[in-house]
Amino acid sequence: MLNLRRCQILRTPLPVNALRWATTTSESTHSSKPAGDISSVFPSLSGAASQPLPPRFADLKRRLIQGHEEEVRQSWNRLLADLREETEIIKAVGSKIIPELAFRDLDNVEKRTAFRDELHKRGVAIIRGVVSEQEALSWKELAKRYIQTNPSTKGFPAEKPAVYELYWSPSQILARAHPNLLKTQGFLMSHWHSSNKSARISTSHPVTYADRLRIRQPGDAGFALGPHVDGGSCERWEEDGYGRGGVYSEIFRGNWEVYDPWEGSCRLSIASDLYNGPGGCSMFRMFQGWLSMSTTSPGEGTLKVNPLLAKATAYFLLRPFFQPTRSPSDVGAAFLGANNWRFEDEPTSVLQGAVPSNCQELNDVLHPHLGLENTMVHVPQVRPGDYVAWHCDTIHAVDKTHAGKSDSSVMYIPACPLTEVNAEYLKRQRETFLEGTPSPDFPSGVGEDEHLGHLTPDFVMQNINIDAQRAMGLAKYDQDCKDLPATERLTLETANHILGFA
Question: Name one Pfam family in it (predicted).
Answer without folding.
Answer: Gig2-like
